[in-house]
Amino acid sequence: MKKIFFLSFFIVFSSNSFGQAWNLIWEENFSGNSLDQSVWTHELGTGSQYGLWGWGNGELQFYQSGNAEVSNGTLKIIAKEEPGGLTDSWGNTMYYSSSRIKSDNKFTVKYGKIEARIKTVNGEGFWPAFWMLPSGGSWPCDGEIDIMEQWANDWPTNVTTGAAHVGSCPGQSFYQSFQHQSQTGNYSSSFHLYGIEWDEDYIAWYVDGVKVYQVSPTSYPTIPNQHTWPFNSNDWYLILNLAITQSGPNSLTVFPSQIEVDYIKIYENNGVVGCKDPQALNYNSLATISNGSCEYQVTFRVDMNNVSSSFNIPEVNGTFNGWCGNCWQMEDPDGDGIWEKQVTMLEGYYEFKFSADNWAITEPLDPGWACTNGNAQYTNRTLEVDENVVICPQWNACVPTCSSIIISEISENNKKSNLLYPNPSFGFFNLNSNNFSDLKVVDVLGKIVYENNSLENTQTINLKHLPFGFYQCVLSSKEDQYTQKIQILK
């Protein structure tokens, strides 16, 4: 069980469970008529005191405590015009004010379910956010979790976003993010629930109780070669603010305007959270709560023999790698014109397409095809990752060109022959029967990678030379044949 850590104060909390998986352990209901100073601290000014210009984003507001009010059970953070201007420590004058509060050095959290019920705002230039930073950390190498961000505009605010930043210090951040469009209208017209479920090597975002996005270390092409996954370290504090973007308001923006926060709640799980699918690479046999964190082996193959345009290296591009052209370059080791890329991917829905030479050429896909998303403007292939699979179309076609293996089940026991193959295996498995004489081990591309024709006296088979992943072991004799799927870990 992952724990929530509290600093500097003690709170009596509720033990009511949330559904079947979560215990409520802390909540902020903004009762009374002022902020709880044992939890919250105001951040003031423009960030110049930290060497930041407009809090590092060129923001146009000056934060002050008077723009945060607590009344009638909610927190209001109010953006106002300041005709006389407010001057920061660098001598810069800002003509807008707002508030930003944080729980650093007073209240921190690591792992759990974290959510807030918020009514946001309309108006060009407004930038409300509910987010987290690591206490005592450096940015961006120690990470940033954006639970909710919105960029208001003239028309109703119906898109919300979230992100998780990684990076190097010093250096720029690299992040994965999403955009989720409201199905019920304007986010500023009523309260909505924004939250994350956060555990080791996993963060998922929820809007009004529906999961809309998730990341794990495998979501970042720069991990581990360039960056590290920072979200298993440190204790993290909460931040709420309403900023004014660098581009600023327009003539239709209304002042004063506000966001309103009804509550913040934090839960811890009352079981073992993890991947419960035995075929997944990160299967946790102890997990009692499935949290959508399963990772699978996905092999992309594309037959390039019908491509008339010149190219050097095909690539796989999609929502899983930020459409980064040369991030997932493919290989053709045997020169047959069929290029491959094998990756580990987090479960979920993705869109992708094949291109070459950093988008020099790309597939002209048809939105009417069954394998595409139906979007005439951005026509992509669709992919639902929920098992280990080989994807093998011809360039600009849907029909598979290979006899792909989809590993949908892994069984440790074969009742018919009383065979037992440990799964997962670290390169060895025991053969508990002498009924078979021949063994062929086939990878997910259908290639025979190991063969043994004299099993009579063999009890332990060494497959440590094979790369990690999933395989089919085809055992045969004159009378019978048996196929067993196995997993070899790193």
Describe this structure in words.
The chain is mainly beta. The protein has three domains: 17-269, Jelly Rolls, CATH 2.60.120; 295-391, Immunoglobulin-like (Sandwich); 413-488, Immunoglobulin-like, CATH 2.60.40.3080. Helices cover 0% and strands 42% of the residues. The chain has strands at residues 17-18, 22-28, 41-43, 61-63, 68-71, 74-87, 93-98, 100-102, 112-119, 126-134, 144-149, 159-167, 173-181, 192-199, 202-207, 210-215, 236-244, 257-269, 273-274, 289-290, 295-303, 314-318, 338-346, 348-356, 361-362, 381-385, 389-391, 413-414, 419-420, 428-430, 438-443, 448-452, 460-462, 469-476, 481-488. The strands form eight sheets. Strands 1, 2, 4, 5, 6, 7, 9, 14, 15, 16 and 18 form an eleven-stranded mixed sheet that branches. A seven-stranded antiparallel sheet has the order 3-8-17-10-11-12-13, with no helix packed on it. Residues 1-20 and 404-424 have low confidence and may be disordered.
Question: What do we call the CATH topology of the largest domain?
Answer: Jelly Rolls
Can you count the helices? 0
Tally of structural domains:
3
Q: What is the percentage of strand-forming residues?
A: 35-45%
The major pleated sheet works out as: 11 strands, mixed
The CATH class assignment of the largest domain is: Mainly Beta
Low-confidence stretches: 1-20, 404-424
Structural class, by secondary structure, is mainly beta
> If classified by CATH, what would the architecture of the largest domain be?
Sandwich
Helix content range: under 10%
What best-fitting shape do the alpha-carbon axes yield? elongated
- Look at the structure and give the mean pLDDT: 85
Amino- and carboxy-terminal Cα gap: 26 Å
Return Rg in Å.
27 Å
Annotation, overall tally of beta strands: 35
